[in-house]
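Hi team,

Filling in the usual template for the complex we talked about on Friday. All components are listed, including any nucleic acid strands or ligand strings, so the model treats them as one assembly.

SUBMITTER: L.P.
PURPOSE: interface mapping
COMPONENTS: three
RESIDUES: 1232
SEQUENCES:
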Amino acid sequence: MAPESVSMFGEGFDAIVIGAGHNGMALAAYLLKCGLTVAVLERRTEEGGGLCTEELTEPNFLHNLHSNYHSLVGLSPVYDDLGLYDEGVEYALPEVQMGSVFSDGTALTIHTDMAATHASLARFSKKDADTWLRLWDEVRGYLDLLVQTMMFAPPISVDDITRALVAWGVEERSEFLSIRLRKMSVAEFLDKHFEHDRVKAMLAFHAAICAYQPHVRGLAVSYPLLLGKIANWHLCRGGSHKLAHALLRVIVRAGGRVFPQVPVEEIVVEDGRAVGVRVPDGFVRARRLVASSVDVSQTFERLLRPEHVQPATRAAVARVRYQDASLFNVHLALDGLPRYRAAAFDPAIDRAWIVNVGYESLADFAEDFDAIRAGRAPEVPRLNAAVNSLYDPTDAPEGKATGLLRVFAPYALAGGGAEAWDADKARYAEACVARWRAACTNLDGLVRRTAAESPLDLERRMVNYRFGDWMVGRIHPDSLLDHRPTDDLAQYRTPIRGLYMCGASQHPHGYVTFAPGYNCLDVIADDLGLEKWWRRI
Amino acid sequence: MSAIYSQAWYDDLKRLIEGSAEFAARAPKERIAMALEVVGDASSPYVPAGQERHYLIVLDGAKVTTLDRLPARHDGRDLGFRFTAPATVWESIAAGLLDPITAGLRGTIRVRGDMRFLMKNADAVKILVDLYAAQVETDWPSGKPPY
Amino acid sequence: MSAPASGQRGEHDVLVIGGGHHGLTCSAYLARAGVDVCVLEGRHEWGGALHTSEPTGPGFCHNLHANFMEFLHIMPFFADFELGKLGARTLYPDIQAGIAFADDRPPVLIYRNALVDETAATFARYSARDARTWQDLKTRANLFEPALAFGLYTPPPRSEPGRPFPSSTEITERMMVSFGLDAELAHKSIRDCIDELFEAPEVRMLLYRLAIEFCGPPLEWPGQGWAFLFACLFMPGCWRMMVGGTHRLSGAMVGACLREGVTMRESCRVRRILVEGKRAVGVRLQDGRELRARDAVVSAIGVKDTFLDLVGEEHLSDYYRRRAKNFKDGPDQVLGTLAMALCEAPHYRSAERDPGIDRAWYQVVGYDTPEEMLDYCRAPHNDRLPEPPAAGVWVNSLWDRTQAPEGKHSLTGWYFFPRASALTEAGWNEVRRSYNERFRAHFERFAPNMTAGNVLAMHLHTPLDQERSLRMREGDFGHGAMGIDQLYALRPFAGAGRYATEIERLYLAGSATHPGGGVTAACGYNCFKVMCEELGYRRVWARDDRLY
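RESULT (copied from the run log):
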């Protein structure tokens, strides 16, 4: 018999969502608008999950500890469905989205204005610049379809996709879509269509920071979708956490509750059905469903008692793989905006939101990821440097700025494991800043304070990011679409009735897409016979 | 030969679909409702700019149970798909001048609905668009594209 | 650069500036009364001083400002909006505070209100007289609670010509008498009150320290007997802890606001209060946008910020301009908040005499003698950092395991430092680098397990940080000194003591009004009451079972 409910939770709720990340909160908001009573239970002190903004260096310097780039704004239906803009969410779309600075003093910039992007690429290769425009043009034609099909719907198999492409003769009708993509890596795709190393490095950098490792075979199949968003990277004004505040407001206004600092300890199952959760205060009843936005490993290995998990499911969950490359982060409080040496070549680089410092060819990626797989942090860190203050000056006191350096790095260091980061963190952070300093003209004296977060710290703060994997499951053909997180769990349902999976471990993956929560909603609506008011066909 | 957008033209299309053994073999099992939206543009002599024509097609297996012109835009309830394009595009397809799959890929035809369904029934989709694009014989009273 | 159109409306009945707990309180009541209210917060986070974060590392929660909650059980907002159901859960530790010693002296402990005898027993280790005195005074203080609540949650009376209301000193004299004490104590310093009533040095030490915890006057200023009553008799024993950190209380307050339909905008800094004629009509934001207020503007921020920065001197009378400029910022001892991520909670030498010290919520540590304590309390007034480093610390994770990773502990504490302007930024940076470690080394004398190896990470939030993060001038944690000249109807200054101001339709709801600093939710509540009187709003605060 289940213990009595505690008063804060009353008689329980129709639905309990575990984890107040953006996916869990979005799902809760939709369910509330369907008329269900909903509570979201969160382990951390703040709602938002990866939408986490803190004054990590010093007061009034807002640092996005995790989610920083929101590339589905305008494409994800959730913003409008839930009225998030009405709750104060505002985005900036930086006109210079990203760029690269190279050791020879040159720079390349990706602009929202494709003519400007073309001009920047053409300084390296006219042919590549033209190819780029054709590719961009083609992708834009089917982007909407791809986003609808590949993200905002429960997953289908690559085989189904391939069959359709063949049946429709897509290969003859497009230059870049091909059934061979399913066998190719992003690097191979870039090698096939582009000639200049720097151009390839820039495009591979973009893929890599989306967690698409350039040399993983088969990922080229998603590359057109990825590329279609390259000029759609939005910055949430006031910090990414503001999006979480808006979600919270939507939920509470709809009569729902979010309870931070209430860690779920167990999903309670009776007769094969999830009936509630156990928290430190007692039992909270879920009358219709429990949705877990926690990663699949924790959900099945920690939150469910072993006797409720079938051996086959347990075995499949044990096989779930996480990314072998995590991120090392350095947050900086700066006394002004950094200036790049390469601005002499392309002044736009000083306006680029996200800058690649160090990747100059596809081989550089292979070198780093090989080192990472061997448990070594890249000797000379190659940076992904973002200065949010360029486009959101409110994130720092007037005249000051924040900076964020990210480096691909292993979770476990060879010879010391993940814990070794605690001792090595300060040194490696200094190496990152030194690398940035070398690429800039004015960083000396600009750095007020820094705060480093190792891959282990990522996991400590967000337990969902197992092994520091911010995508909550690796980006690999074996772990995508109908294989994510396992074949049996890919459709958001679980073998336990009334228990659904709605977090980033599900299709499509992490990042602020809201798609896992949205797709889980679709399945729940089917099962509960809810009217899909959000479906706008 | 029936005039474009006439009831007879749609009856022809319906007969072609229901008469296709190929389609019958590959038709989706589920009933599916689709809205076709023809948006007037400055070029088409059939649908003036600012006007729209709305059609509802319901397939139940290989049967066309509904093929009607609607008085207004479908409200989306119980609708599987919505295909929207300028009149010139639809007419160019019917005239065999424009490949419908390409138009879909380029985003010239805007598709709303569960693409997974179209992918899983890719062969049936191909047969249908070919019927529309190549097989219906069309009379063009106000001129044939490109007009 | 583009952004999807924002859904912000440009006009509301009432605009509330500041989303600290007073602003939230006032907003929630206004909305419940049917008023269209929008609250604007400059920071990215709500709750102002109800501030919890993880400065020492993931999972270690530290309340960088407010920590103990003395008034939740009498706070109308808490009851009226069922904040408990909205996620504000409290714990009420049996042993509220204690002082540890480095030698074999037993600790002095203060238990929660109902456990007067337990407290007295620890006093009796040093002095039977002190134990009896405590039993007598604390029992009387407990009976005073309804009167205290009435005083906190009722606006000061209007002063009318010919009918002056009693001065604060007169009120204090009467209270002293009702405690069976000499009325003269009202005119003495806190230290004198303590010294006259208690004889044991160890008891005095704990009471000295408790007396400066709330943002009251310096220990040795005459005429502050009221502060002795308040800080030493009323407050210790009422302290509640918020489960999950104090920010959970603001989370529940935000929930209450949302449920009532308050429009909430964070990261939204107000640059001007718009005044037309002599009337407040709206605000201009930092980004240039203007919002209009049909009925009123409520400022729940500091008094200088309100009048000098936002209204502007050109709209003020000479009197207001002068009084706003002369408004005295908080106590000369301000907070340096220390945070430590620990493997083990401190285990004190004094625990051998009474294990209760290890389970005391507030642990005073680092002092050997009353003279040391007095010097510590005086140092900030002379712009000195107290030496040796000593503090009062909380280990909230002892009671609430959600505040630290499994098997670890988070310790938060208060140093008392000189005001932010006493040191340069570089000076404070140096303090941040070195002071914690010196405290830790000193701490080890009192609790041998507080070795360097026991501390995983440390952080120090300096007065300059407090000033910058919470907009508390000089790190002033009371939003204005709480001296007898700046209290009750004289807060923030004579003529502005009833939440209304000389600018028509501009109200004050921050801690610069009665009753001052602390998590009372009274300033916002009382402001709402006055708005009901003046603007005819529904008196949704009124309840048959409550006098205030």
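MY TAKE: Helices of chain B lie at 7-19, 21-26, 87-94, 100-105, 115-120, 122-135. Chain B has one domain: 2-136.

Thanks, L.
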